[in-house]
Structure prediction request, 307 residues.
Amino acid sequence: MTGLNILIVWCANLRRIKVPWWAKICAKLLLSRIPFSYALFARFGAFRHGRMADVGYALAVFQDHLSRAGLGTLQGKVCLELGPGDSITSALLAKGAGATKSFLVDVGAYACEQVEVYVSQVPVLVAAGLPCPSLDDAQSNADVLARMDAQYLVHGLASLKTIPDNSIDFIWSQAVLEHIRVHEFFDTLAELYRVMEVGGIASHRVDLQDHLDHSLHNLRFSSAFWERDWWADSGFYTNRLRRNEILRCMTDAGFTIVAVSSDRFSRLPLPRHKLAAEFRTIEDEELGVRGFNVLLMKGRGGSWSSH
Ligand SMILES: C[S@@+](CC[C@H](N)C(=O)[O-])C[C@H]1O[C@@H](n2cnc3c(N)ncnc32)[C@H](O)[C@@H]1O
Prediction:
């Protein structure tokens, strides 16, 4: 076994053993400098872009967003998932729910390219009441996407800019908004607003914990440090925007907030004095939000219910 292999296996074990947050940062800083493909890292569990290749997870997440949006079906609709992560399963989900077309927009081509993964998902989705077409003769992800009338776009904000105005009826994301670089955050929301059809609906789940230890260790660092590219490109970046800042950006972009539901830490996971100065003055009520779901509309008035 080479030194690199030992390092990768060690990092795979990071998920199973209790490793301090700072050690995870060190490991990720190191590993992200090694020129291996995403597929190889994902195989060892060192870096993973979510869990959408797991059809049970993907189905549960999709159905949750549909139900939050009050949509029984996507019949005749066009939909967009921001940040599909490690698979193009959302294309199957959208087609199975009746969408005429779907867009999957990410910042890299992270989707699994083993077509048999998607072939095996079809019967599961059909059994769950999402009758997507058979993929038995699909040879590549391009075939899967064509069969599902889907486009997989991997240049983030630049990709969103290629989508026509008012063309999407339903937008959703799961654990993605917190990963958008802070300097692109508002522009991304503005693009999502532009592409959404009047009367369209968006459902987002946002995870505000650090992505190290389900805590707030990410708030220990000043923005001047945290936003440096070499740091932000190391696989643990979150933009650290708090719930109310995110909601403000959404309304500034033009969206109407229809509903917000938040979940909280039982108590603040870090003493305030450990946070960088810029976060120390945030009120407990706001700092204590661990994550939230938000439902947005374009155009129609909505009443914002929050809990
Ligand atoms: C934690 S993963 C979540 C993946 C998937 N939604 C899930 O629930 O398994 C975050 C995803 O957001 C993507 N992402 C980060 N910044 C983005 C951006 N500006 N636009 C689109 N996707 C982005 C990442 O590449 C990654 O695929």
The mean pLDDT is 91.
